[in-house]
Amino acid sequence: xxxxxxxxxxxxxxxxxxxxxxxxxxxxxxxxxxxxxxxxxxxxxxxxxxxxxxxxxxxxxxxxxxxxxxxxxxxxxxxxxxxxxxxxxxxxxxxxxxxxxxxxxxxxxxxxxxxxxxxxxxxxxxxxxxxxxxxxxxxxxxxxxxxxxxxxxxxxxxxxxxxxxxxxxxxxx
Length: 173
What we know:
- This protein is α+β, with helices and mostly antiparallel strands and 173 residues long.
- It has two domains: 55 residues; 93 residues, no CATH class.
- The protein has a five-stranded mixed beta sheet.
- The protein starts with a helix and ends in an 8-residue tail after the last helix.
């Protein structure tokens, strides 16, 4: 996987190529070359490409892996203070705690906005049960609340609902 340092290096090379193309475009206008407008277009494209690579060098692309966490899928996110993740109904309470911790770390973004003075991101974990064919019921197994302000939140509040695990189907042998 590419790292931030890789994107910094790509940005430098792309910036050098952009400057070379810009110099060629200026030279093309001075000498009235037939490809001068293509050089302007290519230079513009390289400016956009270099800007994108620079932006990728600022934001880490890696996800945190918490030992014991299982795969989850984000099924709802209002971009602000509420998120719901879907997990398998075979999850255990210890796996759920690790998964909620991983989701809280990975779904943090400084671009989330607190609404009505609520500076907490709430991530709820749910599984789907099928008591009868054609009927699906979501079962909320736990939630985590974390700060929207601080990236490293030592005050994360994780709640697990043990009574809800009884509603999950029992694993077959």
